[in-house]
Records
---
Amino acid sequence: MISQLTRDERSSAMYLSGLLVLFGGFLAIAGRNDVLGWHGAMLVFSGAILLFALISRFYDDEPARESRHEYYDDPTKFGVVVAMIWLVFATFVGDWVAWLLVFPEATFDAGWSSFGRLRPVHTTGVIFGFGGNALIATSFHVLQRTSRARLAGSVSPWVVLIGFNLFCIMAVTGYMFGITASKEYAEPEWYADLFLVVIWVVYFVLYVRTLARRQEPHIYVANWYFMAFILVVAILHIINNLAVPVSLGHAKSYSLFSGVQDAMTQWWYGHNAVAFFLTSGFLGMLYYYLPRRAGRPIYSYRMSIISFWGITFLYMWAGSHHLHYTALPHWVQNLGMTFSIILVVPSWASAGNALLTLNGAWEKVRDDATLRFMFVAAVFYGLSTFEGSFMAIRPVNSLSHYTDWTVGHVHAGALGWVAMITFGAFYTLVPMLWNRERMYSSRLIEAHFWLALSGTVIYVFSMWNSGIIQGLMWRAYAENGTLAYSFMDSVDAMAPYYVARAVGGFLFFLGGVIGLYNIWKTIKMPAQAHTPIYDLPPVVDVEPAE
Amino acid sequence: MEFDHNFFVGFAKSYGLFYMMAFFFGAVIYAYWPSNQEKFDHAAKSILEEDKVVQK
Ligand code: HEM
Ligand SMILES: [Fe+2]
């Protein structure tokens, strides 16, 4: 990695690592024994390792000038591997908390291993650790290929990737220490949030500067989706996390919002995190890797544009469906409900566009597990968005809210759509990136596919069952008008479904382990003799290093 | 004019519909504008044509 940097770039990387040490040092000194202090120490340590690596290799040979004519894929390679490691770690924790719901005593009497702390470790690990790294890695790849231009910087991609992963590590370790901003999917505290803002701005600037260098007149639609992801996540993150820390030396902060405004801001954020983190960027992946793997252009390019604006615009208004029957004004609930229902149209337009692209190539879908991953992803995308629009209808939500149905919906989206499209994209991408003829083992891809699919189906079906039973038990009345079941009755009734869910989750986890192994073995395979000529950007005069 | 809660609610409930529809039609017109067609076709195929880029 360092060998691909010029000496100038190595020294700017050293300045930045030095800044990281200083920032960490400030937190460590100000925070002392607070978790803030520990996180500061971790940043100092990370910065020091980077500095050490950079200093010890500083006088190594510089990369050949011609290498500046190639696409810059080291960051993408790093992101792919790290994403898979996060996946294995975070689905392991997910299955652990699933078993905790079956055996609630199994916490070893320790604070860090309680359900309330491990659950956000799981959600942050899968959404940000796995999903985030996958998005960053694939966005760099797609951006360069569709623009036919090299990334507009060699250090800034590393700032994005390393910084983002440090943020994720601060997040998950913080929860185990017991800190939280108590906003779902936005649990990290103020200092980690500020750190992420800087990283994210670097990401956006890098993206736009690379686009500005493009050799293609039209910006391919996948880039629109990636840009919406980056830009909107920045807005959401900054506004929802506005808070005042207790002191500069303390991890705890208080939100700027309170009461129902706080709830609305949080679910405007939470819902649009689904839209722009878990949907928009992954649609960007779909619009590039699915046509490439299938060898067919997207069925309707026009439709991809209309659904882009549809999704981007409609999602923004739907957040209040998370707050039905609350103190939120009725009209705001209605607004969210209405927009959620309309939202199924652009969502199905995207899912249909993907399936129609495959129409006529079904034999490829049958034979090629990689393409099948993307096919299944499109199906689950259609399914979970239909389900979401349905659950957003207030009377339906009165049954589903607070029940495992929501959890089933989430995982139809997260496992069936987000993770499956990523696996399909990765198995397409990895041989290209490392210049291998193919993946190490197509049978292992096949095994991964069936484990992932059966795991998802078992998971989703058991949660649908338990959710609907819960919902019905909670609203069942006895003849004399009292509730027919106590809450504990409903908890007992969940036991078999929780076991089934944990088994399904284990299958999915196992698939992830196989995927990581397969990718690792592919990296260890000998490279093809030469870089395929198509995988080089057109020759342009390279600007001198900035 | 005061930019308070009532102002925004009033705006959302009155002009909201119109600017949203305008936005929607804008996107549709852009997507279906005949002279954009060639550009879109080219873009859709370009990701598959990578194999054919000729190097100097
Ligand atoms: C048209 C699209 C969608 C709509 C209208 C929608 C709607 C909903 C609704 C009504 C809920 C339940 C809120 C509650 O009762 O508390 C929900 C929860 C959730 N949905 Fe969706 N959904 C959509 C697509 C997706 C997709 C594709 C994902 C991808 C992963 C997803 C992830 C989630 C998550 C994570 C939650 C749980 C939020 C929580 O923690 O309470 N949704 N969604
Ligand atoms: Fe939502």
Note: The interface with chain A takes residues 20, 23-24, 27-28, 30-32, 39-48, 50-53, 55-56 of chain B (CB under 8 Å).
---
Amino acid sequence: MAIIATEELGKDYHLGPHTVHALRGVSVSIEPGEFVAVMGPSGSGKSTFMNLLGCLDRPSAGRYWLDGQDVARLSRDQLATVRNAKIGFVFQMFNLLPRTSALENVELPLLYGGISSRERRQRGRARLQAVGLADREHHHPSQLSGGQQQRVAIARALVNDPAVILADEPTGNLDTRTSVEILALLQRLNRQGLTIVLVTHEPDIANYASRRLVFRDGRLRTDDHAEPLDAVEALKSLPEEDEAVA
Amino acid sequence: MLLQALRIALRSLKVNKLRTALTMLGIMIGVAAVIAMVSVGAGAQARVAEQIQSLGSNLIIVLSGSSNAAGVRLGQGSQTTITEDDASAIAREVPLVQVAAPSSRGNAQVVYGNLNWSTGIQGVTADYFEARDWPVEVGRPVLQEDVDGATKVALLGQTTALNLFGDADPIGQIIRIKKVPFTVVGLLSRKGQSSWGQDQDDVILIPLSTAKKKVLGVSQANARSVGSISIKIRPDEDMAEAETQIRALLRQRHRLQPYQDDDFWLRNLSEVLQTQEESSKVMTYLLAAIASVSLLVGGIGIMNIMLVSVTERTREIGLRMAVGARSRDILTQFLVEAVTLSLIGGVIGIALGIGGSNAISALAEWRTVLAPSAIVLAFGFAAAIGIFFGFYPARKASRLDPIEALRYE
Ligand SMILES: Nc1ncnc2c1ncn2[C@@H]1O[C@H](COP(=O)(O)OP(=O)(O)O)[C@@H](O)[C@H]1O
Ligand SMILES: [Mg+2]
């Protein structure tokens, strides 16, 4: 069964007398364990599509099943509960809480899932370890590099054992080497069975995904599968010096 | 969840220490002002209430002597115009009257052993104690037989007893008033200062008849004349009506023509004090109201800072929503933050208010009364302000659109 299934998904924005058709009937199905890159020029509807997939917004038309559940007509608070249980977000700007330790940042989604503080701590530590930052749990975001901050954000996205990770330009603020490191991490998680949908406008980044969805004018134009590059291999050919810049 | 919200609130308050302190200052000053002002008002009220208590309730006093045309009263007893018969007539003919007790007063030197003390001597009848709400603490009051038989018995006020006997038991002892020996039969309970500042416990009560014969002397004009009549009106009766009836009766008995002034002086003191009590209550409310304004201003300060905080933390709110916070989680978080601000400010304000109230009573020598109810009220008021002024910013936060909030720069 598909983790994500949309049927003629549409989204209109009303700006005074004008209506912007941001998304015009997108039907797509994503199976468990896929690593999907969403591409397209600016204004083509990528973010709108991701916001709908992430249950941050409701579609104007069409249907959407997330992990078998019809979520297109849920209320605001029901959507919040779905996000909490099924979705992990990774943002371009990391969006970590300032003056808050890495561990507490990772625990944040569990806070709204009514998980006991002991279990929160335990799961938070495990995810930090999974992204290789076990020794940074008490660091605040300002004491971490960009790549480390994005790893904390990925740990936070993982902490709820979500059905899918949605990442909107996760490498947009990182240098090349750090970007590939983050992709290596995502590929590793994907190989362990995690479903990932990633938005990017860089073809270099999209090459690490196994499937590419290309949007144009709110429509899905291309949907093709390709053998992905291996980020770990790619790292070997990248110059070491970049490490210092990160 | 609430505990969690409290922890988040405390953290965010800690991040901006100076701002938090300044915001709390408004509530602190407001709460302190309410507590200090109410304690001043309550102090004034307590003073008046005490005076009413010491005066005796529902008391009307008739003094002999006239208030002449110019409104200047000649000294008390300068004309002995009222009599024991007036007192019995008032008790008999005015139904509103519970009891009317005639008495006469003078000063005399009192000797016990080698101690002597100059004090007020009050000749009274058995009704006097009821009329003045003045119970006997030890021993017995003046009885009808004492008045009939002009016995030489005396009751001491607390001040007099202290000056003549110290801590010793005065009952049964012999004292000399103007060289006449009297047996002390009772000790009066403490009455305290009168509203005009006189020590009412510096007194000796003896039977009226004995007083006239042996101590104060008898008026040549009328052997039945007395200095004053203390009249107790029945509970819940109209004091003004009683006053009118008593005045009419006395004028009739004294055969005064309509154009003539009263040849007696009639005072309803409890009415005066009740008016004072009313006005001190009004003053308390007024002070509390003025102080509340500063509390209100403090609340507006909280709202202001919370609105700034919501704007500053828009991205944080968006993130919390994205990872699963429902509207009410966000609402709770910001509401708890506002209430925490106001409650911490409130607690410090209570301490300041108590200190301020003590300072006022020490420096200005005003009586202040710290009512626990006022403290609880001020604290509750601070909490209510936090909820009231925190609600709008919190609701604003909870209604943010997660997508826009996440994108907010
Ligand atoms: N909140 C909004 N209100 C109005 N129009 C919007 C809004 N969000 C997006 N749009 C419009 O919808 C279209 C698609 O936008 P978006 O999904 O952000 O594209 P992309 O992420 O591919 O750059 C654009 O024309 C954009 O201007
Ligand atoms: Mg976009």
Note: DSSP finds nine helices and ten strands in chain A.
